[in-house]
């Protein structure tokens, strides 16, 4: 049984996943500046293709030669992002109209609407600030947050997944810690990509033939670095990129240890299938990460690695949803009276 809006929320979740992967593909093919302006492309609604459009682009953007393939990649990403924004807007409108119905989430759809509008602003800044790494990284995080919150909304509108009958505190805490660590690791991955540091180490488990080569962490994580003129290809030196890459590896180790402990706790409370699925996604993500290093970041593996990060976030969202402490339990623990029926905890 599902609540009204479930199908639209599921559609938006799938669309958000596609947009996240399109964004990854755009970054990895160096097409982030395929269109030098926003929201159009060379002042047009699509990529210039004919002679008249090419002349217009050369006249108004003489420093940005038209690259049709990269421009198309960027504009397709924008079209699907616009479709996602419209879908989330429709979700927010439906939630507002049904706000008096029992079990209808309202705050989450409104939060998603605000988030997707912020994403549009960061998408514009990504172009106008010429792929400035802090903006690119925050834009990536916003996309993953949108995906995760849409999945959470889908779960709340569905009865397919319910909280576990027994919610041990250890599993709940580990699930929360795992979610935070995966989010931080995705941010580090975005920082690696934005600064073109994926090839700073091309061997594994060592880096440049050493366990800890010389690295410049100060410049590698200088978040207020100078803006412009163009960050396509990256501006940091080798030691700064090495620092970023090494930090991402350390983050991967922490995530792995945390999720292994979480899987063990889930198995202890009888959630073997959930634990097994978590381990499968984690194992695939580790293998993809190592493969990207040893094979020098082939496009297919790099996009798959981005998909693996999104998959881990979705899995952690599901686990946190199923292990959360419902409102009636919090009310009993605090002695406060909460209005509404049992279904109100899905709000």
Shape: flat
Hey, roughly how much beta strand do the residues contain?
A: under 5%
Mean pLDDT across all residues, rounded?
89
Largest sheet: none
- The tally of beta strands, per DSSP, is 0
**Ends apart, CA distance between termini:** 17 Å
Number of helical segments with 4 or more residues: 11
Q: Give the helices and strands as they follow along the chain.
A: HHHHHHHHHHH
What is the C-alpha radius of gyration, as a whole number of Å? 22 Å
Instruction: Determine the structural class based on helices, strands and strand pairing.
Output: mainly alpha
Tell me the helix content: 55-70%
Low-confidence stretches: 327-347
Word description of this protein:
The protein starts with 5 loop residues before the first helix and ends in a 13-residue tail after the last helix. The C terminus is likely disordered. It is flat, with a radius of gyration of 22 Å. α6 packs antiparallel against α8. It contains eleven helices and no strands. The protein is mostly helical and 347 residues long.
């Amino acid at each position: 049984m599902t609540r009204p809006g479930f199908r639209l929320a599921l559609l938006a979740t799938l669309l958000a996943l596609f947009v996240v992967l399109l964004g990854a593909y755009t970054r990895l093919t160096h097409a982030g500046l395929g269109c030098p302006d926003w929201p159009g492309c060379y002042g047009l609604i699509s990529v210039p293709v004919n002679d008249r459009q090419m002349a217009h682009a050369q006249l108004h953007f003489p420093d940005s030669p038209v690259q049709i393939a990269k421009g198309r990649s960027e504009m397709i990403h924008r079209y699907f992002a616009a479709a996602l924004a419209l879908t989330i807007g429709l979700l927010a409108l439906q939630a507002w109209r049904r706000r008096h119905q029992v079990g209808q989430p309202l705050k989450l759809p409104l939060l998603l609407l605000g988030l997707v509008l912020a994403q549009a602003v960061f998408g514009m800044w990504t172009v106008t600030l010429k792929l400035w790494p802090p903006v690119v990284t925050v834009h990536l995080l916003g996309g993953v947050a949108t995906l995760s919150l849409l999945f959470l909304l889908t779960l709340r509108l569905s009865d397919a997944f319910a909280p576990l009958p027994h919610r041990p505190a250890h599993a709940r805490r580990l699930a929360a810690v795992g979610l935070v660590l995966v989010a931080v690791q995705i941010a580090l991955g975005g920082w690696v990509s934005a600064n073109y540091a994926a090839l700073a180490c091309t061997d594994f488990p060592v880096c440049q033939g050493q366990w800890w080569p010389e690295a410049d962490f100060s410049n590698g994580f200088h978040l207020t670095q100078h803006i412009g003129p163009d960050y396509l290809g990256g501006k940091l030196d080798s030691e700064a990129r090495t620092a970023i890459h090494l930090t991402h590896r350390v983050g991967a180790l922490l995530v792995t240890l945390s999720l292994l402990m979480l899987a063990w706790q889930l198995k202890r409370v009888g959630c073997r299938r959930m634990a097994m699925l978590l381990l499968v996604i984690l194992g695939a993500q580790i293998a993809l990460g190592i493969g990207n290093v040893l094979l020098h970041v082939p496009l297919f593996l790099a996009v798959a690695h981005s998909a693996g990060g999104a998959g881990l976030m979705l899995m952690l969202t599901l686990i946190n949803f199923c292990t959360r402490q419902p409102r009636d339990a919090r009310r009993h623990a605090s002695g406060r009276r909460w209005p509404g029926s049992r279904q109100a905890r899905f709000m």
